[in-house]
Each structure stands twice: as structure tokens, then as C-alpha cells.
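Internal tracking record. Fields below are filled automatically when a chain is submitted to the structure queue. Please do not edit lines marked as system-generated. If the sequence contains nonstandard residues, flag them in the REMARKS field before resubmitting.
Queue: standard
Priority: normal
Entity type: single polypeptide chain
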Amino acid sequence: MTSPAPTPPEQTFDWLDAEAGKRGDAGLVRQLRPRAAGDRDLDLAGNDYLGLAKDKRVAGAAAAAALKWGAGSTGSRLVTGSLELHTELEHELARFCGAQAALVFSSGFTANLGAVTALSGHESAIVTDKYIHASLIEGCRLSRADIAAVAHSDLAAITHALSTRRKERALVVTDSVFSVDGDLAPLPELAEACRAHGAALLVDDAHGFGVLGDAGQGAVHAAGLAGAPDVVTTITLSKSLGAQGGAVLGPRRVIKHLVDTARSFIFDTALAPASAAAALAALGVLRSEPELPSRVLTAAGTLAVQLKDAGFTVSLPDAAVISVHAPSPEAAVAWAARCAEQGVRVGCFRPPSVPDGISRLRLTVRADLTESDLDTAVKVISSCAPAAS
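SYSTEM-GENERATED OUTPUT FOLLOWS
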């Protein structure tokens, strides 16, 4: 068999142009839209649920930490990058959420990668909800485990997958609050199913932490599973805490195992000091202002009802995420663009980012939104809507 003729260097990536054309035809082209520091748009697209990203207490703590510790952590946690700030943050997160221990990662994505891969392997089975976050999906792909991805929020399907698995060890993986429609997983029932079949439960509480539970302690805490010996929680520091980074919370032996085996922890540069300090300060604000989570839930419920009354197909939120159906990917993109032109930024979710194939606007609320903000959002979204929405 002869080798193909060599491709000229300038043609090596010609296949990218063909792929870009396919995405364009399907309405799936994505664009970066940098925002200025003084941007005064109404933001219903970000995940700053408690409105703390620009809080002077939080931003001030970040600035002070950068001056004290430097701009970066200088290395991985196991070399030179593990700072007293990280240890303090881990202690405070575990105490706040009711876990035995915590481990801080550079992002929520790497926390999920580390947790899934380190707690599974080729001798394990993983059962997941089909709607889990992309970071959990990537962890499953890297795990070398037997994977069963079942229908969304289908407890019977999860139970069946656990009872028919071929591996002795099993891990059930789920979001607490799913990031597309904002619906809540049945965590108590999932834990019961896991225990009936000898499986561990891994919950990504990115959209529940800071919003649900007593004083924002999260969906796992609200479900009565905090501190359970067979439950592991992952969170991000970039949503309710307005900072950056991620963490895994759970039994001490799980955290020790991650330190020894989680490659996205071992080989990754540690979280920057400014981000760790900002998360610590935000956690302090949440402790001192426990009413913040209820403000988020109230605003989310109000906005969803108003949009539904305006004639849209809207998800009823269990936390801070609301989705509004759009007739097509192209319509969703145009709708979001028109809203931005009117000073309201909304998320635009399209396949393959949405597992159900339905394009939508994805709206997120914050604790600091006013009634006027919500009224403005409904007016702009309604006036910019496509005719067939």
C-alpha cells in the first residue's frame, strides 16, 4: 500500500474550512464578544448569582492577595503552589457545606475531571444522567470505566443500570441543578438507589451552591446528604462566590485519594492567590448575609412567571437558571443579538451544547436585580423575540 501524496503545508488545515462551513450552515458559529470594564448592560447571561464578583469586599480581598502573594501561585499544589490561602479556603468550604474535607482546584472543570477519573477507572461502572455538564462528560470519557448514560431525571433507568452493571464498583454522576433548564435532580432518591446497589454518588453542585440549602449551603446539604460517607460534591467558585476555581468536598479519604491520583490536580498550576482570597471573602459575605440566596430564588421565580405570562415557553426554575425556547438555532442567535443591542445580555444555547436539541435563551438571575431590572428584561426579550417564538 502506497502512502498518500504529501499535503502542502498551506493545505494541512483545509479540512477546518469545510467544518466551519458545516457549522455555518447549521447556525452553530460561535463568536467571542469582549465586554468593557465599564459595561452597563443588564447581565442575564453570567453566573454571578449573588452579585459578588464586583463587590468591593471581594475584589478588595483579591487585590490585597495579589500584592501579598503575587499574581500567580508559581506551580502545582504538590510542588510550590500550595498556599496557606488554599488550605484556609478548603477548611472554610468544608465547614460551610458540612463536609469532612475539601480540595481546591484551578477551575470547576478540572475539579470534575479529577473527581470522576480518580473515583472510577477500568474496573468501575459509571451511570450518568444524559444532561450532565460537559466537564463531567469529559471525565467519564477519560475514566476508562463502563459508561451508561440514561434518560434525564429517570430514576428507574439509573436503578436498572446499577442493577445490571458488569463491574463491582459503581459511581453515579449527576448535576444537582442542570445548567440548561435549571431543574433539580432528585438527590435523596438517587442516594437511596446508590445505597441499594453499593454505588457512590458524585454531585456537581455548581448551580446549587450559594443558591439552595440553608443560607446557600447547596443542594447536597438541602437534601440531607452533607457529610455522607458515600457522597462526593464538586462546586465551582466562579458562580455564587464570584471568583474563579473549583473544589471537591467529601470524606477525608476521598480527598486524600484525589491528592495522590487526580491528574488535573497533580499536574495543574494551582489556583491564583487573588482568586482564592476572593472566594474566601465571598464566602464570608454569604455567611454574614444569609438572605442573599432567597433573593436569587425570588427573582428567578418572578422573571419566569412574567415571561410565561408574556407567552413564552419557559422553564420554571429550581434555582437561578431559566430557559426560554427559541424556534431554531439561527433564531436564538438573532434573538440574543437583538437583546444585546437593547442593553440586555442573555445566554444563547444551541445544539450540541443542549442535549435535547432545543435552542433557547438561557437566563440567569442575581440577588442584586431590582424589580425595574426584571421589568426591563421582560420588555426587551418580548420586543426582540422572533415571530415564531
